[in-house]
Amino acid sequence: MTPLVVHVVDDDESLRAALAGLLRASGYEVRTYASAGEFLLDDTAMTGCVLLDLRLEGPSGLDLQAALTRRGRTIPIVFMTAHGDIAASVRAMKGGAVDFLVKPVERATLLPAIGAALAREAAQTATAERLADLRQRYASLSTRERRVLEGIVAGKLNKQIAHEIGVAERTVKTHRAHLMAKLEADSPAMLGRIVEQLQLATPSR
How do residues 77-113 score in pLDDT, each as one tens digit? Predict the structure, then answer.
């Protein structure tokens, strides 16, 4: 099983060490960083979650959040701060942060927040893997199977699809069976959901 990694970003060395110790004692793998730039330079920091101080020397925690968003990295973030800055917390949450904790952070509030962040990461990973699998299955369809799929999703009958693409109805039935097997779909409704997922995941131009 892959260890659950928590990336701690805080410019206070003693606090970094304390948080790392607490998290390791709770069963997590921990990596620590003294600045936003140090974290961004770590190309391996792609999974798990980030426990991020709001106010850092140099680029702030919010700057790091924005940089990750620009790079398309969706790693979940739990913010922490010694300052009860409501405006900053609102901005952080709107940016997709999982939680916003006030220092000194207690174990009773920290661990549930980290658990929620890692649960989000697991869900995001599962969704990405499912989508990658769907794309691979769709790519395996022949051109004619894709045309039959379009017809099915549009609610057309086999004979209508056959007329449109110029083949016998039995040929459409054969293509239909093949594409449903390739996409692991057991109904036209499921085919529709698959196509919708693929379309939603494709950036509009």
Answer: 999 988 767 777 778 888 888 998 988 888 999 999 9
β-strand pairing of 29-33 with 49-53 = unpaired
49 touches 76 (CB < 8 A): yes
First to last CA, the chain: 39
Pick the CATH number of 140-200 from 1.10.10.60, 3.40.50.970, 1.10.10.10, 3.40.50.2020: 1.10.10.10
Q: Which amino acid is at 197?
A: Q
41-59 pLDDT, tens digit each: 988 777 899 999 998 989 9
What's the CA gap between 149 and 158, in Å, rounded? 11
What pTM value is reported for the model? 0.73
Sign of CA dihedral 32, 38, 44, 45: positive
Q: How far apart are CA 77 and CA 203, in angstroms?
A: 24
